[in-house]
Every structure is written in structure tokens, then in C-alpha cells.
Amino acid sequence: GAVVSQHPSRVICKSGTSVKIECRSLDFQATTMFWYRQFPKKSLMLMATSNEGSKATYEQGVEKDKFLINHASLTLSTLTVTSAHPEDSSFYICSASTGPTSYNEQFFGPGTRLTVL
Amino acid sequence: DAKTTQPPSMDCAEGRAANLPCNHSTISGNEYVYWYRQIHSQGPQYIIHGLKNNETNEMASLIITEDRKSSTLILPHATLRDTAVYYCISPSQETSGSRLTFGEGTQLTVNP
């Protein structure tokens, strides 16, 4: 099956620093990638949708200048949390699909747990 | 997206069938029903999807009522590893791409 990886799996950083999370589709080309955030005991919340080679579309309430998304190739998208604060501590999950079709099967990465001290 | 309603939690004995219900009474004719699950501290995993016919794959079966207002995900022989949160999603075809909106899902606990 299609595999999506994320790196790192866990990261601890100091308040005010920036953290980059990578999401890779290992055995398929992902024209569309999604970034989600999940707080403890809560459901996944979509943050943004990115299509390869174009700017990401952010969900309402998500600061685009704080959560920088780059989708420069068909197998790699990155999320950079800039000037991280403790309230940004969360589980960040990416997913990938082969693009907009009538089938919304997304392949999810294993997630990255971010802790901001 | 069509609004979906699921019970917050269910229990099932190991080896027995787990039947997880989902109501989607506002679903429109071209909207699919998708099921994903999330094991604790992992990314979600696709299970199955359907439009109007019942579907079966190696993981589960999906039974959709004739009026399409509800569906049931069936895990025929639940194991301890099936303990997870199960999400029923019906994305709108009018929204861009493969956008999925996750609700609260059903926490399925498989007991030994």
C-alpha cells in the first residue's frame, strides 16, 4: 500500500524557535498533501491543503505566517512552525493523495509530536 | 460535507463482530461514505468507502442502507489490535480536492 513518512516523529524545542516537519510519500506521487493538528483526546483538525507547485490553502483561523507550508515536489511537503510557543504543542499529522478525484482516499503519515517548552 | 453522527464509544469482545453505526441523514446522492480509524498516537488509516452498494475488503465490510441515511462498518472478527477511534466521513464533492472533515468518531475498545 501507499506509504507516507514523517520526520521527525518527536521534537522538543524552546519557545521562540522554529521547527520544520517533513512529510514524504515514499512510493507514489502526491499532488495534494494535507496537514492536520490534533490536541489530546480531540479529533484531527485540518490546517491546510497544499498542491504541488502552488501556495497552500489554509483553513479559517490558521495563521499562514506562523505555519509555513511548502510542497515543492510530488513527494515532499514541509510544515514549519515559526516562533513556536507552548500552545503550539500538539500532534501534527500529514496525509497525501494523488489529487482531487471522486475517491477521497488519503494516506496518512505516522504523525509528529511537538512539545514546546 | 454531510454531517455524520456516531456513538462516542463501543465495546466488543475479542473474536466477535464489531458493528459500528453512522448516521448521515443529510447525505446527497453523489457523496461517498468513508471510514478511517486511528490507533492511539498514530496517523489515521483508511478502511473502506462506498456510495450505495455494500462493500467488503480485507479489513471490513460496509453496509449502507437503501435510503443512504445510515451505514454500518463491520469488523467480522475483532482483535485487540482493532482498538481505535473509528471515523465515519462523508466529504462533499463540491469542496476542493480530497478534503476530509473528521468528527469525534467512535472509540472502539476490544476486550479480551
Q: Would you write up a description of this structure?
A:
The complex is a heterodimer of chains A (117) and B (112). Chain A has 117 residues and is mainly β. In chain A, 0% of the residues lie in helices and 50% in strands. Chain A is built from no helices and eleven strands. Chain A has strands at 4-7, 10-13, 19-25, 32-38, 45-51, 57-58, 67-73, 76-81, 90-97, 107-108, 112-116. In chain A, strands 2, 4, 5, 6, 9, 10 and 11 form a seven-stranded mixed sheet that branches. The mean pLDDT of chain B is 91. In chain B, strand 6 (61-64) and strand 7 form a beta hairpin. Chain B is built from no helices and nine strands. In chain B, the strands form two sheets. In chain B, strands 1-9-8-3-4 form a five-stranded mixed sheet, with no helix packed on it. In chain B, strands 2-7-6-5 form a four-stranded antiparallel sheet, with no helix packed on it. Chain B is globular. Chain B has strands at residues 9-13, 18-23, 33-38, 45-50, 55-56, 61-64, 70-75, 84-89, 106-111. The termini of chain B are far apart. With 112 residues, chain B is mainly β. The interface between A and B is medium-sized, with 30 and 25 residues.
Q: How many strands in all of chain B?
A: 9
The multimeric state of the shown protein is heterodimer
- Average pLDDT figure of chain B: 91
Structural class of chain B: mainly beta
Gap between N and C termini of chain B, in Å? 37 Å
Strand order of the largest sheet of chain B: 1-9-8-3-4
Q: Biggest interface in this structure?
A: A-B, 30 and 25 residues
Radius of gyration of chain A: 13 Å
Number of helices of chain B: 0
Helix/strand-derived category of chain A reads mainly beta
How many helices of chain A? The count is 0
